[in-house]
């Protein structure tokens, strides 16, 4: 059932969120009825996980990843160049495995909440992430994406032009380094996958603390067993290139989903959930093979409007509903170019590069004239 095109975007009040990211049920005040968002009825049919289709996802993600990892171990006795070549598709299947982990965090991969939690915890070992803590942090991202006043919860750190210009030189350098592609996509996977998820915040609730500590213990056992069976050197030679490739690709995918020139950022009072989904989440149109490895996550506008839609229904939901016809659409080339964008310009309402953010020279400032005696 196509969604009717609305003249204005929904302005629904924020709903309280539970740890799984789903809206909690609250009773309306006496004499008031609570209206569902205009898109809910049309998108609900797509938010039905199918067990057989989910099993196929596992068979085309985890199974080939494990098979290619075994092939990399065999290739160590042939050539490390062959190992690196196999690491490319292995990294792709690891990204795809992460998408299943991500779907479990939204309760969209299996019908049972408990089944999603258990499967997510197991898949979390493949992607080095504590499931309950990641689910909690990712729910915050969905609830605050595009809100200027609530930045910093599961998003890529983004400053406004005014905030950047007000920084001390050392702080500006730190921000520039953080947004540098070599740091973000080179060092980023190490921090995002291997270091950050191992740390427990001092103010973490007991459940989050147990999630991190339990995952760390399980990973120590699994990694220790593999190092004992294979040797720590061979384990690192196999895992390092795969994790780095998958981590870099994953960070880039997450980056371009909300970091593009005409992105959406608003103050809390003007922010709406639907605008953040339909204007602040990109439709990254990838070649079919890359769309497969990325688990359709490029259809991010659909995912943010209804996070309960499993990855294999996102394309159909997009194709069959008119509301998605005018969402921000990026090509692969556009996504690569968006890495140049660093700051949000509140005056123009778009992301800009550092060069574009430089203040214009004051009126009446002397301009450099060309030397009339110079050639050319």
- Distance between the amino and carboxyl termini: 65 Å
What strand line-up does the widest sheet have? 1-4-5
Biggest beta sheet summary: 3 strands, mixed
Structural class: mainly alpha
Describe this structure as you would to a colleague:
This protein has 17 helices and five strands. It starts with 39 loop residues before the first helix and ends in a 19-residue tail after the last helix. The chain has helices at 40-43, 51-59, 62-75, 80-105, 113-126, 131-144, 161-165, 169-179, 181-195, 206-230, 232-256, 273-278, 288-293, 300-305, 314-319, 332-337, 354-357; strands at residues 159-160, 283-285, 329-331, 343-345, 350-352. The model is unreliable at 1-33 and 367-376 (pLDDT under 50). It has 376 residues and is mainly alpha-helical.
What are the key terms here?
mainly alpha; three-stranded mixed sheet
Task: Present the secondary structure layout.
Layout: H1 40-43, H2 51-59, H3 62-75, H4 80-105, H5 113-126, H6 131-144, E1 159-160, H7 161-165, H8 169-179, H9 181-195, H10 206-230, H11 232-256, H12 273-278, E2 283-285, H13 288-293, H14 300-305, H15 314-319, E3 329-331, H16 332-337, E4 343-345, E5 350-352, H17 354-357
Parallel strand pairs: 1-4, 2-3
Antiparallel strand pairs: 4-5
